[in-house]
Amino acid sequence: MNTTLSLADQIARELRADIIGGRLLPGMALVENDLVKAYSASRNTIREALHRLGQEGLTRYVRHKGVMVRRLDMGEVRDLFVVRRTLELQAIASSKPLSVDQSERMDNAIDATTLAREREDWRAVATHSLTFHQQIVGLLCSPLFDEFFAQVIAQLRLVFCAAPDEQRFQSPWLERDREIYALLVRGDKPAAGEAMSLYLDDSERLSLALFAHP
User: Fold this and answer.
1) What pLDDT, on a 0 to 100 scale, did the predictor assign at position 76?
2) Among 14, 43, 45, 167, which residue carries the largest CB count within 10 Å?
């Protein structure tokens, strides 16, 4: 963990990573006493970490139940895709030729997605695909955007958890991630941007459908 962060920030990041990894699902309770024991932290530190997650839109306080992992609504889903289009399309449009490190990180994310799909671990498929898109935003070379987008993909992970059939919902995206990556490797930014725009249109439509037909 980053030693420059406070303990509360470190715990908040680990809990966010559990959300992105699909280990904490919408509606799950974050029990203060359990977290105190798990992290050997004070009650105040845990409360501060949970407050951070609340500020990021990942948790909410429910009377008589405590802090719960949030369920998002349709308006919030639409807003997430406004953010995705702004950051991911701009990242592609303004990107320079991929460095070796950038290419390797994207390739590794796609390989991890492929392996997860072969294992039919659809929860991991979603997580690794989001990691690929985090690498897209990384082309902006902005630590501030990287940190912000980590919060965005955690919220997206909560959206994807609403899919009643994870396999059907996650199946289409790997090939499209591969296509975007191949276009970036070739340096064809216009085509990569167009492919990403269509990808986000389709992803938003299917994500909103999860809430329109509960």
Assistant:
1) 92
2) 45
